[in-house]
Amino acid sequence: MKIKTLSFSGLLIICFFITTALSAQTSINGKDTVGVWKTIDDETGVTKSLVEIYKKGSKYNAKIVKLLDKQTLINMGEERFEDILCKECPENHGKNEKLEGLEIIWNMEKTSKKYKGGKIMDPADGKTYSCTMWMEDENTIKVRGWLTILYRTQTWYRVQ
Q: Does domain 32-158 have CATH number 2.40.128.520?
């Protein structure tokens, strides 16, 4: 009887370690994009904004939470980031609304390795593209907007 008790205790300990190991493995492999990210312009290398990726139901969306590029102020003829409006956005998606708070990515679905099926909008010209995102590591995400065979990819960095 003592042997069965030890075996049962041993089995519980083994189950605990396996569960813990699997949980850690899932959190490493199942990295999530939810959080605030620093966006870098892929053409100039300038930090443009902070974007928050959040989950809405079963989909992932993203909105601009803070503009950072002073050149944007100059280009838009404004003195404060808070006053910049999306003049080029489509009527049904942010036209003349403030850029800060504007949703720029919507309806992304998480698959095993990527987020896809959604759209991304470039507020500079109001054009909308198909979007795919994937994690490079826990603190780096690639965001690709594409139209047929043409695409543009940016690297965003998690804000700690």
A: yes
